[in-house]
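Please, structure for the following, as tokens.
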Amino acid sequence: MRMRIKRNLDERLLRCKDYLIEVSLSNLNAKEAVKQSQYLDFVKIFGNDNKVEMEIGCGKGKFICEKAIKNPDINFIGIEKITNVVISGYGAS
């Protein structure tokens, strides 16, 4: 089943900007993209130097949220490329 495009998607994403990190690559060729030096400062983002785990393709984030609750000493990042899914995130209102 196809997900419908959310109303006011851009405005809703803007309201969540403190929780979202957008990484844009001008070159989508993986061999070239890894040569770009665009890094995330996890200590700055999380305010600590705890271990960081990522879930690629996190969808609405239910799994990663539940895992984060069970592991408060680990920082988690969920990666999702479909903004329509991100805004439907687990626990989002």
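The radius of gyration is 15 Å. The longest strand covers residues 52-56.
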